[in-house]
Amino acid sequence: MKGAVRIRQARLADAEAISLIINVYAGSGLMLERAPETVVENIRNFFVAEDAGQVVGCCAIAFYTRTLAEIRSLAVQESWRLKGTGRLLVEKAEAVLQEEGVAEVFVLTLSRHFFSRLGYSEIEKEYFPQKIWRDCTRCPKLMACDETAMVKKLPVPNNTKNRYSLP
C-alpha cells in the first residue's frame, strides 16, 4: 500500500531508478533521455520522491548564473501522477534555490497548466540563450520545439541578500 511520499536529496544508489523514470518520458518524446552515468555525474543536483524506499519521481536543478536556475527532468511514475508528487518535487527544488539566493527559476515544459498553478508565467525562450546552447542544440526537436518557457521570481531570504558583496 502506498504511504506518504518523502522528498529528499538524491544519492548515487538512486541513479538507475532516476534514469529509468526519466527515460519513460524520453521514450514518448517528452524530455531528453538521461543515461545512468549522466545522472551520476549530476547526482547532487537531483531530488527524488520516495515511498517505502522506492524512488517514484525526480527532478533536478541547473544553475546558469548566481541568480538564475532551471528546474529540469521532472518525472513521476505513472501510479504517482496527479497526487501532488510533482508539486512536492518542484517546491523542494525551489526551496533549495531560494536558500542559495537564486532570484529567478525557469522551466521548459509541455505542462504549462501545471507550472502556471505553481506561480510560473510564460516567457520567450530567447531570454535563456544559455539553456539553448547547453541543452537544446542536442534535442531532436530543436527546429520545431513545442515546449513553453516559463519563469518564476523567488523571494530572496534575508540571509542571502548581498551574500557576495564586498564588506
Automatic annotation (TrEMBL):
Keyword presence, Transferase: yes
GO molecular function per UniProt: acyltransferase activity, transferring groups other than amino-acyl groups
Domain N-acetyltransferase: from-to ranges: 5-155
The entry's keywords: Acyltransferase, Transferase
Keyword Endoplasmic reticulum: no
InterPro entries, alphabetized: Acyl_CoA_acyltransferase, Bact_Acetyltransf, GNAT_dom
Pfam families linked to this entry: Acetyltransf_7
NCBIfam families registered for this protein in UniProt: PRK07757.1 (NF005840)
The protein, known as: N-acetyltransferase
Source organism per UniProt: Chlorobium phaeovibrioides
